[in-house]
C-alpha cells in the first residue's frame, strides 16, 4: 500500500470527505464535492504582505483605542468616549457582564491576535517557527471567532444615527481608525492561518 | 469504496484545530483513546466530543436567556420631561420612524432574525442529524455554515447600547442607562455562538454510514 504524506491530504472540516491536495492557481478556490464547503483558497498574500497588514492593523488599533470615537453635543455641552470609556461606563452602570464581553471581544482578543500573528509571521519570514509556535497557533484557532471589531464599527454607525435625532454628532479620529481597521480585517478575511504549519519548519528538523 | 471517501473509511481522522490528516489506528484499538495531534498537540476526535448533548444544552440555555432579552428593556433614555424604556424591538421601530429605515433593517436582522434563525437552524440540524435523516443534506450543510458566518453580528445591539451609555451623559438634561435586558441579550449571543461551535457538521452526513 502506498503511503501518502499526510500533508498531501485534505479532510473537509464540514463533512469528513478526504481529498488529495492540489496546488491552486491565483483566485482558485477548492470546494468540497459533497457538502460544497470551501476546502482551501489560493493564498495570494506573501508572508511579508501579511506581516505588513498586521503591523498596519496594530497601529490603527492603537489609534482606535487612544482617540475618542464620537463626540455628542447638547446645548453647548460636549461628551465623548473612547472604547475603554465605554467599557468602564458599562461596568459602573451595573452591566459588568457586558463590560467584560466588550473588553474581551473588542480589546484583549483582537490585541492578542495581532501580537501573536506579528510574532509568528516575523519568524515565518525566514521559514522558522517562532518560540511558542504550537500553543500560539492553537490559541489563534480558538480566539478567531471572538474578535468583533467589525461589529463594533457597525454598532457605532447605528449609535450615530440614533443619537443624531437628539444631539449634534461629531465623528472623532477613533471612528476613522476603526473604519481603516475594518478594511484591513476584510482584506485578511480570506487568509487561512493554517498555512503557517506548512510554510515553517521546526528549528531542529 | 465510495468515489468520495470519508476519513473513517481511509483510516484517518482530521485534527479539529490544525486540520492535519492523522491515522486513526489508536481509535480502532480503543474508541475512547486519548490521542494528541502530532502537529499541534490538540486532542484528536473523530467527532467533536458529546456534540449533541453540549449543543442541546447550550441552545436551550440560550433560548431561556433569549426570552428576558426580548421582554426586559435593554436601555433607558432619560431627559428632563420623560423617561423611556426601550426593548430590542422598540429600538428597531424607533430607528425606522426617526432615523433611517435601511439601518433599522440591519439592526432588525442582526438582533431578531439572526438569533431566531440560529435557534431554528440548530434545532433542525440537531433533530434531523440525531434521526440520521438524509433529507436536504447539502442545504442543511449550507445553513450551518451561514449560521457560523453571521452568528457574531448579533452583538450589534449590545455595542450600540454600550456606546450610547458612555456618550449620553448630560446629567439631568439627557442620560442613557443600560437595563438588564442587554445583559440577557449579550449572554444569548455568547451561548448561541458556543452552541454552533459545539455542533459537529460532520454529523449531518453520518446518517448514511453504516459504521460508528
What is the helix tally of chain A?
7
Distance between the termini of chain A: 27 Å
Order of helices and strands of chain A: EEEEHEEHHHHEHH
CATH second-level architecture of the largest domain in chain B: Up-down Bundle
* Helix/strand class of chain A: alpha+beta
Mean pLDDT of chain A: 91
* Measured distance between first and last alpha carbons of chain B: 17 Å
Task: Report the oligomer.
Answer: heterodimer
Percent of residues in helices of chain B comes to: 40-55%
Give the amount of beta strand of chain B, in percent: 5-15%
The largest sheet of chain B has its strands arranged as 4-3-6-5
Mean residue pLDDT of chain B: 90
DSSP strand count of chain B: 6
CATH topology descriptor of the largest domain in chain B: Butyryl-CoA Dehydrogenase, subunit A, domain 3
Helix content of chain A: 40-55%
Number of discrete domains of chain A: 2
Shape of chain B: elongated
From the structure above, extract its key features.
heterodimer, A: 205 residues, alpha+beta, two-stranded antiparallel ribbon, elongated, B: 212 residues, Butyryl-CoA Dehydrogenase, subunit A, domain 3, four-stranded antiparallel β-sheet
Describe this protein's structure.
The complex is a heterodimer of chains A (205) and B (212). Chain A has 2 domains: 1-42, no CATH class; 45-199, no CATH class. Helix content of chain A is 52%, strand content 13%. Chain A has helices at 47-66, 83-92, 96-124, 133-143, 149-164, 173-188, 195-199; strands at residues 9-11, 18-20, 29-31, 38-41, 70-74, 77-81, 168-171. In chain A, the strands form 3 sheets. A 3-stranded antiparallel sheet of chain A has the order 6-5-7. In chain A, strands 1-2 form a two-stranded antiparallel ribbon. In chain A, helix 1 (47-66) runs antiparallel to helix 6. Chain B has 212 residues and is α+β, with helices and mostly antiparallel strands. Chain B has 2 domains: 1-46, no CATH class; 48-208, Butyryl-CoA Dehydrogenase, subunit A, domain 3. Chain B has 7 helices and 6 strands. Chain B has helices at 25-29, 51-71, 88-98, 101-130, 137-150, 156-167, 180-198, and strands spanning 12-14, 21-23, 75-79, 83-86, 169-170, 174-178. The radius of gyration of chain B is 22 Å and the shape is elongated. The chains are: A alpha+beta (205), B alpha+beta (212). At the A-B interface, strand 1, strand 5, strand 6, helix 2 and helix 3 of A face helix 3, helix 4, helix 5, helix 6 and strand 5 of B.
Amino acid at each position: 500500500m502506498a503511503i501518502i504524506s499526510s500533508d498531501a491530504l485534505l479532510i473537509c472540516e464540514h463533512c469528513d470527505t478526504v481529498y488529495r491536495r492540489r496546488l491552486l492557481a491565483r483566485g482558485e478556490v477548492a470546494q468540497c464535492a459533497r457538502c460544497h464547503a470551501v476546502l482551501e483558497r489560493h493564498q495570494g498574500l506573501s508572508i511579508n504582505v501579511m506581516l505588513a497588514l498586521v503591523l498596519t492593523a496594530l497601529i490603527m488599533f492603537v489609534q482606535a483605542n487612544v482617540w475618542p470615537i464620537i463626540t455628542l453635543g447638547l446645548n453647548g455641552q460636549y461628551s465623548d468616549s473612547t472604547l475603554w470609556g465605554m467599557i468602564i461606563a458599562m461596568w459602573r452602570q451595573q452591566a459588568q457582564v457586558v463590560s467584560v464581553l466588550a473588553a474581551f471581544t473588542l480589546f484583549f482578543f483582537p490585541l492578542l491576535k495581532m501580537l501573536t500573528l506579528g510574532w509568528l509571521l516575523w519568524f515565518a519570514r525566514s521559514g522558522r517557527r517562532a518560540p511558542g509556535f504550537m500553543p500560539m497557533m492553537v490559541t489563534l484557532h480558538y480566539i478567531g471567532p471572538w474578535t468583533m471589531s467589525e461589529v463594533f464599527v457597525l454598532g457605532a454607525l447605528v449609535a450615530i444615527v440614533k443619537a443624531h435625532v437628539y444631539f449634534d454628532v461629531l465623528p472623532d479620529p477613533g471612528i476613522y481608525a476603526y473604519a481603516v481597521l475594518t478594511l484591513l480585517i476584510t482584506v485578511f478575511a480570506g487568509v487561512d492561518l493554517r498555512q503557517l504549519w506548512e510554510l515553517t519548519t521546526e528549528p531542529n528538523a | 469504496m465510495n468515489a468520495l471517501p470519508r476519513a473513517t473509511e481511509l483510516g484517518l481522522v482530521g485534527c479539529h484545530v490544525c486540520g492535519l490528516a492523522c491515522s486513526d489506528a489508536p481509535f480502532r484499538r480503543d474508541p475512547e483513546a486519548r490521542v494528541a495531534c502530532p502537529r499541534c498537540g490538540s486532542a484528536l476526535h473523530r467527532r467533536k466530543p458529546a456534540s449533541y448533548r453540549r449543543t442541546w444544552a447550550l441552545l436551550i440555555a440560550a433560548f431561556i436567556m433569549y426570552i428576558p432579552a426580548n421582554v426586559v428593556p435593554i436601555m433607558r433614555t432619560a431627559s428632563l420631561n420623560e423617561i423611556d424604556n426601550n426593548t430590542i424591538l422598540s429600538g428597531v421601530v424607533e430607528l425606522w420612524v426617526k432615523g433611517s429605515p435601511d439601518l433599522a433593517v440591519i439592526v432588525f436582522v442582526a438582533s431578531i432574525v439572526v438569533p431566531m434563525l440560529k435557534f431554528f437552524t440548530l434545532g433542525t440540524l440537531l433533530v434531523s442529524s440525531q434521526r440520521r435523516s438524509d433529507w436536504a443534506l447539502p442545504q442543511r450543510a449550507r445553513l450551518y455554515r451561514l449560521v457560523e458566518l453571521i452568528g457574531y453580528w448579533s452583538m450589534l445591539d449590545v455595542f450600540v447600547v454600550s456606546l450610547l451609555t458612555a456618550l449620553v451623559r448630560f446629567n439631568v438634561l439627557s442620560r442613557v442607562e443600560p437595563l438588564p435586558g442587554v445583559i440577557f441579550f449579550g449572554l444569548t449571543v455568547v451561548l448561541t455562538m458556543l452552541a454552533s461551535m459545539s455542533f459537529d457538521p460532520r454529523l449531518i452526513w453520518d446518517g448514511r454510514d453504516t459504521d460508528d
